[in-house]
Design goal:
heterodimer, A: alpha+beta, Arc Repressor Mutant, subunit A, 4 strands, extended, B: mainly alpha, four-stranded mixed sheet, 5% strand, elongated
């Protein structure tokens, strides 16, 4: 078991894979076809040319579609699984027990008191 | 009936370690806490099983079939044995039950890990991220070669750009530091000794906090991570009525910890924890040595007894 394997450079240089994930996340979050400029607003620390390279790669992988709209291209994420992936995810999440326990989930269930406490914490933080 | 205290001391010390470890773990920085919980679980469970096996073995050594294989004197063992037959038999039964429990837990967890990997491997991924088109907010990391972060489109639409970065950094920290292995070891040790369940929970919480702090460092903004967690948790709890098994540590405590200054390493807690771990190992070593001496005496008697008739 290794605990100290830390491959990240501290100087802000990120692995290509990580940037690719962030671009894909931004496209999904946008909820509709967007231009590369809009994506760059969400991933500000990537150069525009890098962004175009990544978008092209995502298109080649079949994860993203590109369409011409006026003078520029718009990009949108593709869901080619006909709901299979969503069904699989739900079966993993809803089974409980060991199957749910092996997923390192971002957030767990909340009780009613937890919800109230969280609301307070969110609103107590003025920058929200 | 009088039993010398040192015989049972390791069981007592390992119980104290199991009960005291969560207290210490909560007072350590998350990374140190996660490692401490895993070490405590392994040492406490190891001591508990080894000591039970030692207690059982003297009785096993007196069973004629076994005694015939070993060059030791059964009468010396029986005369010197500080453990009653009854206690030894119970210990042997418990050891067998624990082996079964460990096997079942390993099988279930192993199968669940393979199932999760199989379910997620078909989802197309850009980099290490696989997005599932689904309105229910969900995000988790799946073990694999390489591991994957699976996030629903509902979760991505819910979070602002920088918050998505925090979420990805959190899940990547789980994958990079092999947090699945931490939770696997903690779970198996708790299967060996139910007293370790609070240690398992404390370890799971420390692992989540560890990933939170890594995410905070990656986006250079701890309150941002706190907000991302709070918003994700509130939205997913509203989206789902069905109760799911909670695996991420309690959310409000994680948010509070991120809004508070980082936990400093405290020498006293670390020292107390280290002393407890050492006490556990030493007590086990002392009783193991006692047993060894008893068997040596029995072997010596056997050797002398074997020589007598030939003279």
């Amino acid at each position: 078991m290794t605990g100290g394997k830390d491959g990240r450079g501290e100087g802000g240089r990120r692995a290509r894979g990580e940037l690719e994930s962030e671009v894909l996340a931004a496209l999904w979050a946008a909820g509709g076809p967007v231009t590369a400029t809009v994506v760059q607003e969400q991933v500000p620390d990537a150069a525009y040319t890098t962004l175009l390279t990544i978008l092209t790669r995502l298109c080649d992988k079949g994860l993203v579609t590109r369409q011409r709209e006026g003078r520029s291209h718009v990009y949108a994420p593709v869901d080619d699984q006909a709901g299979h992936a969503a069904a699989g995810m739900h079966s993993l999440l809803e089974e409980g027990g060991d199957r749910a326990a092996v997923l390192a989930r971002f957030v767990s269930e909340l009780s009613v008191e937890d919800e109230q406490l969280l609301e307070q914490l969110l609103h107590g933080d003025s920058s929200v | 009936m009088f039993w010398p205290v040192p015989m049972y001391l390791p069981l007592l010390v390992s119980a104290v370690l199991a009960l005291g470890a969560p207290w210490a773990g909560r007072r350590m920085p998350p990374r140190a806490g996660a490692w401490a919980m895993v070490c405590a679980a392994v040492v406490a469970a190891g001591t508990w099983v080894t000591e039970l096996a030692i207690l059982a073995f003297t009785a096993v050594g007196q069973v004629p079939l076994v005694a015939a294989q070993g060059p030791w004197s059964v009468s010396v063992l029986a005369a010197e044995d500080p453990v009653s037959r009854m206690v030894a038999a119970v210990c042997a039964g418990v050891v067998l039950a624990l082996i079964v429990s460990l096997t079942v837990a390993s099988w279930r967890r192993g199968r669940a890990l393979v199932d999760a990997w199989r379910e997620c491997r078909h989802i197309a991924a850009g980099g290490d991220l696989a997005v599932v088109d689904d309105p229910v907010p969900a995000a988790f990391a799946v073990l694999g070669l390489p591991g994957r972060v699976v996030v629903s489109s509902g979760m991505l639409r819910l979070l602002a750009g920088p918050e998505q970065g925090a979420l990805l950094a959190h899940e990547r920290a789980h994958l990079r530091h092999r947090h699945h292995l931490f939770s696997l070891v903690l779970h198996l040790m708790a299967a060996l000794n139910p007293l370790l369940r609070p240690v398992e929970r404390a370890g799971a919480f420390a692992v989540e906090r560890w990933a939170d702090e890594e995410a905070g460092a990656a986006v250079a903004d701890r309150p941002l991570v706190a907000r991302a967690i709070a918003r994700a948790a509130l939205a997913s709890s509203r989206a789902r009525q069905a109760a799911l098994a909670a695996t991420g540590g309690p959310v409000p405590q994680r948010v509070q910890a991120l809004l508070a200054p980082p936990v400093r390493r405290r020498g006293g807690v670390m020292a107390a924890f280290a002393v407890l771990m050492a006490a556990c190992c030493v007590s086990l070593a002392v009783t193991a040595h006692d047993r060894e001496r008893l068997f040596e005496a029995a072997m010596h008697a056997h050797a002398v007894g074997a020589q007598l008739p030939t003279r």
